[in-house]
Design brief:
Blueprint: E1 9-13, H1 20-34, E2 41-46, H2 51-58, E3 63-67, H3 84-89, E4 94-97, H4 100-105, H5 110-122, E5 126-131, H6 135-139, H7 143-154, E6 166-170, H8 184-202, H9 204-209, E7 212-215, H10 223-227, E8 234-237, H11 244-253
Parallel strand pairs: 1-2, 1-8, 2-3, 4-5, 5-6, 6-7, 7-8
Bound molecules: 2-phosphoglycolic acid.
Length: 255
């Protein structure tokens, strides 16, 4: 973390978990645990149908409720999709885009990720843009090239001004939901490489002020070590964001 230069953001990604009632109960439980923890922003990204109940329960707290995806078109014949305008109309500010599960199971490409990112930004939302290498790429020593290419393609056409509303989540695919975590050194190195690409694209001021999270089996045990690294500005947390005590411990590590 480098709080002097950029916000630390601890975000949960609930994925396909929690009914509206379960989401409400979870927020009720976690709310007092993270009260007053002002050194980081706290977000839970929720399935569309649970957003309203989670928001309702989060009222008056510092917890924001985000979405897990958004479509790139303003409206039209896209069965099953949700637009940025619909999300903002529901008071949703944050949205995850490009998660590796979307890329892996739902055919998302850098092109669609870029289109979704631009649509969300145009609607005034804050994007949590996910990218990261798969295991074979890490083993072949091309992680830097992979994240650099993703960063450039996913942010094509995004202005320096809009970058104020972009958070990048570096998520090595081999670490997501596997219990394998990047070492703090690996996380710091790759987040640093992404920052170098941002400097190339937008200059050092934007690069230094952009929040770059680490995600991939971040938990209550490894969070402090990961967040101690200067280039790791928070976390995008899956499994541990479903357990209030674990999530609290990660927020504590960010204080
Ligand atoms: P995980 O998920 O913490 O369960 O590995 C992270 C993510 O997918 O964002």
């Amino acid at each position: 973390m480098n709080p002097a230069k950029r916000r630390t953001v601890i975000a949960g990604n609930w994925k396909m978990n929690f009914t509206p009632d379960e989401a409400r109960a979870f927020i009720r439980e976690v709310k007092p645990l993270v009260a007053g923890k002002d050194k980081c922003d706290i977000v839970f990204c929720a399935p569309y149908v649970t957003i309203a109940s989670a928001q309702d329960e989060a009222k008056g707290s510092k917890i924001s409720i985000g979405a897990e995806n958004v479509h790139f078109a303003e409206k039209g014949a896209y069965t099953g999709e949700v637009s940025a305008k619909m999300l903002t109309a529901c008071g949703v500010k944050y949205v995850i885009i490009g998660h590796s599960e979307r890329r892996q199971y739902f055919g998302e490409t850098d092109e669609t990720v870029n289109a979704r990112t631009k649509a969300a930004l145009a609607a005034g939302m804050t994007v949590i843009l996910c990218l990261g290498e798969v295991k074979e790429q890490r083993l072949s020593g091309i992680t830097k090239e992979v994240v650099s290419m993703q960063t450039k393609l996913d942010l094509a056409g995004v202005s320096a001004e809009e970058m104020k509303r972009v958070i990048i989540a570096y998520e090595p695919v081999w670490a997501i939901g596997t219990g394998l975590t990047a070492t703090p050194e690996q996380a710091d190195e790759t987040c640093g490489q992404i920052r170098e690409v941002l400097a190339e694209l937008y200059g050092t001021e934007v690069a230094e002020s952009t929040t770059i999270q680490y995600g991939g089996s971040m938990n209550e045990k490894n969070a402090a070590e990961l967040l101690a690294k200067p280039n790791v500005d928070g976390g995008l947390i899956g499994g541990a964001s479903l357990v209030a005590e674990k999530f609290k411990a990660i927020v504590d590590a960010a204080q």
